[in-house]
Amino acid sequence: MREFIWCAYGCGMGQLNEGGHRNNIVTCIKCYKKTCFTHKTEWHEGLTCTDYDIMKNPEIQASQRWIVQNCKKCPKCSCRIEKADGCDHMTCGKCRYEFCWSCLADYEAIRRHGNHQHDSRCKHYAQCHS
């Protein structure tokens, strides 16, 4: 479907966009500058439309900051995990991988070989006495 869009740079030119929202970058046939079809603004170089929406929304930005500050990524599947309370033995709700919250060490290795499998800077680390 073809939809009309004005150039976001004010050159006075408009054009039909082939593909609508599936074709978000519209290059003006007069000034050759790029307009975002979805946002009807100058093209947001380096950002997808979703990234642009997040950048423009302060509530989403605040949520993203909170997630980065308070959650960690599962070492196996990268799903974000929040630790509310309790011990540091975590199980990912998505992939069921078990790991240490403090150092992200694999709990299977810890069970099999002992606490020296934790990172040496982790509070749960214990030297191996062989």
UniProtKB/TrEMBL annotation:
EC number: 2.3.2.31
CDD domains found in the cross-reference section: BRcat_RBR
Any one Gene Ontology molecular-function term assigned to this protein's record: ubiquitin protein ligase activity
SUPFAM superfamilies the record matches: RING/U-box
Coiled-coil ranges (or none): none
Record has Repeat as a keyword: yes
Catalysed reactions listed for this entry: [E2 ubiquitin-conjugating enzyme]-S-ubiquitinyl-L-cysteine + [acceptor protein]-L-lysine = [E2 ubiquitin-conjugating enzyme]-L-cysteine + [acceptor protein]-N(6)-ubiquitinyl-L-lysine
Biological process terms in GO annotation: protein ubiquitination
InterPro entries linked to this entry: E3_UB_ligase_RBR, IBR_dom, TRIAD_supradom
Limits of the RING-type domain: 1-126
PROSITE patterns, sorted: TRIAD
Keyword Transport set for record: no
Keyword set, alphabetical order: Metal-binding, Repeat, Transferase, Ubl conjugation pathway, Zinc, Zinc-finger
PANTHER family recorded: RBR FAMILY RING FINGER AND IBR DOMAIN-CONTAINING (PTHR11685)
UniProt protein name: RBR-type E3 ubiquitin transferase
